[in-house]
Design a protein that fits this description.
single chain; alpha/beta; five-stranded parallel sheet; about 40% helix
């Protein structure tokens, strides 16, 4: 994800995909024109990268020139097109191919046709690298189309947002949900994860989604998902991942305007981590990090035995049960640690010290996301 001015954009079309599309357009144009020497006309500023790569790949002699038109202000296409720089050479009897970076409403294309109306060219063809079919309002024929894209604002490969982004070799799409901070919070029994989650959600105005709480809510209120989950639990079976994901999706939907989410208790497997990534991607967002509180086993055992004296929980009073719980935690999280490390998203935080000291360490990690 990148930030240009005040907006965030996510990766959309890779450099390789662009190169493949440009090569296909070159092949199509070359096959149509055969032995003629065409004049390729680039529309500045956006088409400079496209024209450069196109001409470098074109296998036959050709001429190149440019016209410049203003058609964008911010992220919206303006209705009025101002002709800034026109043609300076005679194109009578020549085959002209307009090389456009993107065609959306077609307003720029209309001005191009007006410019060439009195140029007496042999043939005028339109080639565009990107095309927004949902936005196109004109009847002019588009002879060559590289990639159809949805009706969303994009930057990169010559396209800009208020001057920035033209230099990017790939294309990014505007995020419909702007910057959100989403992370998975891990910690072994006794690490103080619940305490820290309460501080973090208040500090960063995040929504804390505890899988255990979500399950209990759905089962208690006998929601469709709760009853479905209970049917598996009553048979001693594991609740399918999809049911859990559907519950989490419902929680995310309830808080669609949130600054972000703390996921607690999920995922527990690689399959679940991938499902969570897909869920956040469907919300035009992502998991920014796995943050794990790291505490020495002996410290954890001491903490939990101390807690057991007042909590009344039998699993906090038996040292062997405590050690088994800690070992089980490491078994489950080891695979997830590898998963998030592969994405450069694993953040281990020292969980030993006072509550405020640990909170400060967590804040530094989150502030850097």
């Amino acid at each position: 994800m990148i930030k240009l001015h005040d907006l965030y954009f996510k990766p959309f079309i890779s450099e390789k995909e662009i190169d493949t599309a440009v090569q296909r357009l070159v092949d199509e144009v070359a096959n149509d024109i055969n032995d003629e020497i065409p004049v390729f006309v680039g529309v500045l500023n956006g088409s400079f990268m496209f024209v450069s790569d196109f001409v470098k790949k074109y296998p036959n002699p050709c001429e190149v020139t440019f016209i410049k038109l203003a058609s964008y202000e911010g992220v919206k296409s303006t209705e009025d097109i101002e002709r800034l720089i026109g043609l300076t050479q005679d194109l009578s009897g020549r085959t002209v191919v307009i090389l456009e970076d993107i065609i959306d409403t077609g307003n720029t294309l209309e001005e191009i046709h007006r410019i060439f109306k009195n140029e007496n060219v042999k043939e005028l063809k339109i080639a565009t690298l990107f095309h927004k079919p949902e936005a196109y309002k004109k009847d002019f024929k588009l002879h060559y189309i590289g990639i159809n894209v949805p009706k969303k604002f994009i930057v990169g490969y010559g396209l800009d947002y208020d001057g920035l982004g033209r230099d990017l070799p790939e294309v990014y799409q505007l995020k419909t949900t702007q910057h959100m901070t989403n992370f998975v919070l891990f910690g072994p029994p006794g690490a103080g994860k619940g305490t820290q989650a309460d501080f973090l959600k208040e500090t960063y105005n995040l929504v804390h989604i505890s899988t255990g709480d979500v399950f209990r809510y759905n089962i208690k209120n006998e929601t469709a998902l709760g009853m479905l989950a209970k049917s598996f639990m009553d048979k001693g079976e594991l609740v399918p991942d999809q049911v859990t994901i559907d519950m989490l999706n419902s929680e995310v939907e309830k808080n669609a305007g949130a600054n972000g989410f703390i996921f607690d208790g999920f995922p527990r497997t690689t399959a679940q981590a991938k499902a969570l990534d897909e869920l956040m991607e469907s919300k035009d967002s992502q998991i920014d990090a796995m943050i794990a509180l790291e505490v020495d086993d002996e410290v954890l055992v001491e903490r939990l035995l101390g807690r057991g004296k007042t909590s009344g929980r039998p699993d906090d009073a038996d040292e062997q049960i405590i050690r088994n719980r800690i070992n089980e935690y490491y078994k489950k999280t080891a695979i997830l640690k590898d998963y998030y490390m592969a994405q450069d998203k694993y953040c281990g935080v020292d969980g030993v010290g006072s509550i405020s000291e640990i909170t400060e360490r967590l804040n530094k990690v989150i502030d850097a996301l």
